[in-house]
What does this fold into?
Amino acid sequence: MANSSKGWYYMGYEWRGRSIVYGPFTAEEIRDAFKKGDIDEKTQVRYGLNSPWLPLKDVAFFSRLVSRPRLTFDKQEFLKRHKTWVLIIAIVLFTFVYSRLHTPHHAPVTSALSTSVPYQEVLDQNTIINLTNKARALNGLSHLNENPLLNTIAEKRAEDMFEKQYFDHVSPFGEKASDIAQRVGYRYKTIGENIASGRFVTNQKVIDGWMQSPGHRKNILSTDVEDLGAAIIKGNMHGEETCIAVQIFGLQSREVYKPVCLAPSQTLFKEIEVKKAELGDLKDRLAKLKQELDNENASIEADRSLPSRSPSDTKNLNLRIRVYNEKSNLHNGYLADMKAKSVVLQSMIGEYNEMVQTYNSCKTSQ
It folds into this structure.
């Protein structure tokens, strides 16, 4: 089935170093491309969109094709047929080298053979995000919010590709961006991913490549997402230095429940009422006991002021003084108990009032 159906893809590079995926092709068309020299045994190929990329020489379908002898260059025949041109080129090269070697050091030397190295822009995450939002703005779409968790997902995806030497939306172990999102705590309703691999001269080239691909363009211009994260990392892929860029698009899931407003505790309210009643009763007893103490104190002082008393009167007075002192101690005990109960009551009232305030705030926010 894989031999006859158009399910084969191969990866190439344009002059700017950006990777391009070609296909789909049949296996026969892949063989023709190899024979023509459009691809070689190191070209990355895969069957379908979910299988990993592999060098052509490691794919069973094409192993015999790759093992066939390739056309060789016949140096003797070439020199025989192009002897005159070879001699001319040798003379030109000799003249050029001789002139360079005998040029004074203080004289500036220029050469028509010198080539300029293209400017390599620093590839970075922030620029990728800004250029993505610029592309959306040019298409009349809203700005996407940079999300640190999505940046983390993008970084982990790029690092995993280099570590396991693959380039795909699914790792060899079946892990996708959505799996990492769950692990890092990004609760999503929608999540999408763009990936690119190649030798990019500028950040804009990365965005341009995505915008020229229908699937990647759809993600960038999606109206179903609000958040964006990105990463671009340089590394070694199958023995060659390359960059992997990753975009992660997301829409977080909304809360589907309302906060529960807890009413103030009725048990606490009843306990407060009981404490109030106890304090009221204690105050009444204190007031009655204080009145008795005041009357007895006045009577004792009057008897003490008498000029003369009989022994029985003196004995009776001392007994009344002892009773007075015992009542006074009882009064002081009641007073201390009332103060302690008052502190507890105020604490209970404060706790209840806080419950009332929290409940009212909760109801107002709904």
Q: What stands out?
A: The radius of gyration is 47 Å.
